[in-house]
Design goal:
Elements lengths: L6 E5 L12 H13 L4 E4 L11 H15 L4 E5 L5 H13 L4 E5 L8 H12 L4 E6 L1 H4 L5 H10 L3 E6 L4 H10 L4 E4 L5 H6 L4 E4 L6 H13 L2 H17 L7 H9 L17 H13 L4
Parallel strand pairs: 1-2, 1-8, 2-3, 3-4, 4-5, 5-6, 6-7, 7-8
Length: 294
């Protein structure tokens, strides 16, 4: 694992069995697949991993098994943020104890903290010593982090090393990277990843990578080589699949797709989500067949 985290980071789903328990066999199979496919980092218990409904005990086991499989070859990122500083610290402790290389910490949803509150929140988590990726996702949190606030966090807190920018704007990511060039800045929007590479993105934390890890890993490599024709071909080939992954709340379609691909045993999600509709399943089936993924 290189010192700089870049390229394709998968926001891994958490597979469940029909009774709602974690499907450990499928989970480990997904990790092995990503390890051999060139994925640079695996995010466990992110939004796509249904973090709000994963218990602390389950988190520990998810991280432990991931670290055992990924070792030091692939970065392990743990999604630990909640709208409670105390809860975020508790999640972070477990993640670091089980070998996480990075902590992905979302700006607290619902609370909408002011800049001083954000500084206090991230400073408390930083006391544990783990590297922090700040996660800006206004569609989930109701708060769109201003550029100067991220700059403050980066300059004031040594452990803050990166940003996942999912505000749905190519320009915003470019401005973030320009304002804080020393930080790694990752795209959090699959549909904007390629144009965001052109304005400075260091990689992507991706839902799409759940389905095509090898192809996603190639995007960053080809970009660094200056092979823009590959980027155009990639976008034309997968743009409809990207769209379909968000026709219902993430990770509902991603799980349905992985089920159709035979990678997981069920497409079960935990309440308050519900599994994909028959219409979504059919749309995904048609597109996956077209792409040769099933």
């Amino acid at each position: 694992m290189s010192e700089k985290l870049e390229g394709s980071i998968v926001a891994l789903i958490t597979p469940f069995l029909g009774d709602g328990s974690i499907d450990w066999e499928s989970y480990e199979g997904l990790l092995e697949w990503h390890k051999v496919s060139g994925t640079n980092g695996v995010l466990i218990t992110g939004t796509t991993g249904e973090a709000p409904v994963i218990s602390l005990e389950e988190r520990r086991e998810l991280y432990r098994r991931a670290k055992k499989i990924l070792g030091d070859e692939v970065a392990l990122i743990a999604g630990v943020g909640t709208n409670s500083t105390e809860g975020s610290v508790a999640n972070s402790k477990v993640a670091l104890e089980e070998g996480a290389n990075y902590l992905l910490v979302v700006t607290p949803p619902y609370n909408k903290p002011n800049p001083a509150g954000l500084l206090r929140h991230y400073s408390e988590i930083a006391k544990l010593g783990g590297k922090i990726i700040v996660y800006n996702v206004p569609g989930r949190t109701g708060y769109n982090m201003p550029i100067d606030v991220f700059k403050m966090l980066f300059e004031e807190i040594e452990e803050v090393v990166a940003l996942k920018e999912a505000a749905g704007s190519v320009d915003k990511l470019g401005q973030m990277k320009k304002a804080v060039p020393e930080a790694e800045v990752y795209s959090g929007d699959d549909h904007l990843y390629i144009p965001q590479l052109l304005v400075g993105a260091d990689g992507v934390i991706s839902v799409l990578a759940n389905l095509i890890p090898q192809e996603m890993a190639k995007v960053h490599l080809k970009f660094k080589e200056g092979d823009n024709s590959y980027l155009v071909e990639f976008w034309q080939k997968y743009r409809e699949l990207i769209r379909l992954l968000f026709v219902e709340t993430n990770p509902i379609p991603a799980k349905a797709a992985l089920y159709l691909m035979g990678k997981i045993k069920t497409y079960e999600v935990r309440s308050p989500l519900a599994p994909a509709s028959e219409k979504t399943l059919e749309l995904l089936k048609v597109e996956l067949e077209k792409l040769g993924l099933i």
